Amino acid sequence: MGLVLYHAAFGFTSAYRRMIVARDVSGVRAQLIMLAIATILFAPALAEGAIFGRSVSGAVAPVGVQVAAGAFMFGLGMQLGGGCGSGTLFTVGGGSVRMLVTLAAFVAGSFWASLHMEWWVSTPRVAGIALGEEWGWIAAAIAQLGVFLLLFLILRRWGRKTEVALERPRWRRLVTGNWPLLWGAVALAVLNWVSMIVAGYPWSITWAFTLAGAKLAKLAGWDPTGVWFWTGGFTEKALNSSILTDDTSVMNIGIVLGALIASGLAGRYAPSFRIPIRSLAAAIIGGVLMGYGARIAFGCNIGAFFSGIASTSVHGWLWIVTALAGTWIGVYLRPSFGLSNET
Length: 343
Fold this sequence. Notes:
Layout: H1 2-7, H2 12-22, H3 26-48, E1 50-51, E2 54-55, E3 63-64, H4 65-81, H5 85-93, H6 97-114, H7 117-120, E4 125-126, H8 131-135, H9 137-158, H10 171-176, H11 181-199, H12 206-219, H13 233-239, H14 247-266, H15 277-296, H16 301-310, H17 314-333
Antiparallel strand pairs: 1-2, 3-4
Helix pairs in contact: 2-3, 2-17, 3-9, 3-11, 3-16, 4-15, 4-17, 5-6, 5-14, 6-12, 6-15, 16-17
């Protein structure tokens, strides 16, 4: 995943920004293709509840105020921070020192949100809704594919003329990078499906940031006793276990390593330690917003949006609508922090 993200420069943050600023919809159209392929791959496995003998479940979460609020924060934060959940990891692996700052703030914000989760879960919401379970998996998959096609055609008509074409593979390019976006879209959809086979659930990222923040806080003397989110069940067990027993944490490490290898193969690993003060401030603010928002929204652009929609979860659709609203504001705040909207 790290190698694919880096070689295809498959960023969600920059794709939305280019759509808003320049009507360049190539990145968003590639995401629609990725979602369509993932939906087709996920539906049979989720309908059966198993694949290759392995029990699997989708990324389904409650729908309500906390998802909308968290996704809005995340959309705003990713434009200031300069990356999303996956983008932060692969750019850190690619040698971006600024994104290390964003990542640290992301971890801090995610842990901070975990301390408030008891309040957030009391806000208005309904139980998670998977369209596949409500309508049947074939009907839900067809409905989603219809929405993807409609959005693809609308963007094609509205956006600036660009191509998302599948090019004939060149072996050197496969190794050194600069892949077409469509290569990345296809590869990430397949890899998310593989992630579900390996882990039993679709690709997720930001839970590992929450866990890392809690472990660091515990090392610094924080006592989780009585904290609602960290009392009982999966979260308490994870907090008291090695981080190497947590699938999401190990996958995140793998993404960073994959991007590091990819940047080396491309000959582009060149860290820069000069970060303007306003850009540094944006990285911190953006990282905290992303971390806090992702935690209360049950995921980021990967766990909530990509994996959620591929699982036909309504919360994934709510996530992207409200995240785009936050993104729009973030794009227009970027110049105040000395950040260009041209890249």
